[in-house]
Amino acid sequence: MRKKANRESFGGDGQWIHNNLLSNIRHPAELAHGANNGLDIAVRLLEPIKDQFPILSYADFYQLAGVVAVEVTGGPEIPFHPGRPDKQDPPPEGRLPNATKGSDHLRDVFGHMGLTDKDIVALSGGHTLGGCHKERSGFEGPWTTNPLIFDNSYFKELLSGEKEGLIQLPSDKALLDDPVFRPLVEKYAADEDAFFADFAEAHLKLSELGFADAE
Hints:
Blueprint: H1 19-24, H2 28-31, H3 39-50, H4 58-72, H5 103-111, H6 117-124, E1 131-132, H7 134-137, E2 141-142, H8 153-160, H9 170-177, H10 181-190, H11 192-207
Antiparallel strand pairs: 1-2
Helix pairs in contact: 6-10, 6-11, 8-10, 9-10, 10-11
């Protein structure tokens, strides 16, 4: 049996959300959290699809949607295990990473989830997809030149420095300033297969926080 984590001690990161947050993300109170600005659009678009699969909990459905999004955009295959229960009460604000802070903050937030330095850097590579919108986060722009493709370009762009039209958040730059994080950034920039393997492992670990199932 996989050990059952304390569901009240974990949060998510707004993109790779653990199952407590997944089941709550459709509720106004959770969507109102600052780190979740804009997720109401995704929730609205996914709702007609969810209606076709009532057997799935919302927590499982949103997790599966994330796994599929990574795979169809060129990323690694990530195992999916159903069984997440839906929760009704969102966790308190402040458990999600703050994009304006540095490495100590990242370790504090993700460390409480049982994630390692390697996990933190690998999951940061998820920024290869999508971008920021100023009206939602205060930041504007994508991290890479092709934000619809999942690859290791986030790390390459991070190492190459700031460029017009692309964004690097303070939390991204913190990866370069940290003596443990930076070698991992360099490794993933040079070896996409290594990034894919570590991302899939970290994503699975994050996605299964808070629920147990038989192996």
